[in-house]
Design goal:
about 240 residues; alpha+beta; Structural Genomics Hypothetical 15.5 Kd Protein In mrcA-pckA Intergenic Region, Chain A; Alpha-Beta Plaits; nine-stranded mixed beta sheet; 6 helices; elongated; binds uracil
Length: about 240
């Protein structure tokens, strides 16, 4: 591939502009400055630097939804050798990583992508996207407990933002709750339920904004649709 085409594909600049950069002596191939556009390079073998920075081909962006099972961690590697969520994604060559975290004992909707911009935006604390969870908790929260959950609770010395909580079903010694929060603090739902004295027994994330897990089975994954990707980018 000609060097200026390679540079354009790497997102450095247009081909014309790349030719200029080459003439200005800003481009190195395998440690040697080149000044003539047109040189052919092998994208897999040659090391190309522009302004002293290595460039590489942009990989295709992929967006995946996984129904995370219990027992998997959302880091890329685990020092305790536990199973990681990317073990579940087969046949995808791009290096994808999880968007945010789910606890090892939480199931449900997890996004994985190689789109760093989107990950940054979705996980930034200023982002208000609502995450919806179904929680099975011990006991049945009373009105006062529900209200304090809604108004915000002190966890780890800091008050949580307003939240949504509704009892979907209640039994003698446990209840099923619909919980929606837009923050992403560590083990936040568990800590909030603990703070109202109804510890979580089971936790599943079912939606991120309007993106829903639907009937995707535990351990299964699928690519997001164009509309879903456009929606996430609009957030
Ligand atoms: N809140 C939790 O406590 N755990 C999760 O995995 C996600 C939100």
């Amino acid at each position: 591939m000609r060097i200026q085409k390679f540079m354009a594909k790497c997102g450095v600049a247009s081909r014309r502009k790349s030719e200029e950069l080459i003439r200005q002596g800003l481009v190195e191939v395998n440690g040697q400055v080149i000044t003539e556009p047109g040189l052919k390079i092998d994208p897999d073998k040659d090391l190309v630097k522009v302004n002293n920075k290595k460039i590489k081909l942009e990989s295709k962006k992929v967006y995946i939804m996984l129904n995370k099972p219990l027992g998997y961690v959302t880091s890329l590697k685990d020092e305790k050798n536990r199973r990681v969520v990317t073990d579940l994604i087969d046949g995808v060559r791009e290096r994808i990583y999880p968007v945010g975290r789910l606890d090892i004992d939480t199931t449900g909707l997890l996004l994985l992508t190689n789109d760093g911009d989107l990950t940054y935006r979705l996980t930034h604390p200023s982002n208000e996207v609502v995450k919806r969870y179904i929680a099975v908790v011990e006991g049945v929260p009373n009105k006062r407990e529900l209200e304090s959950f809604r108004q915000g609770l002190l966890i780890d010395g800091k008050k949580t933002a307003k939240a949504y909580i509704k009892i979907l079903r209640s039994f003698e010694d446990e209840s099923i709750l619909d919980i929606r929060i837009h923050e992403g603090r560590n083990r936040q739902v568990r800590k909030m339920c603990e703070a109202i004295n109804h510890p979580v027994k089971k936790l599943k994330r079912v939606a991120i904004g309007e993106l829903e897990l639907g009937d995707l089975h535990v351990g299964n994954w699928r690519f997001l649709t164009e509309e879903e990707i456009a929606y996430l980018k609009s957030l």
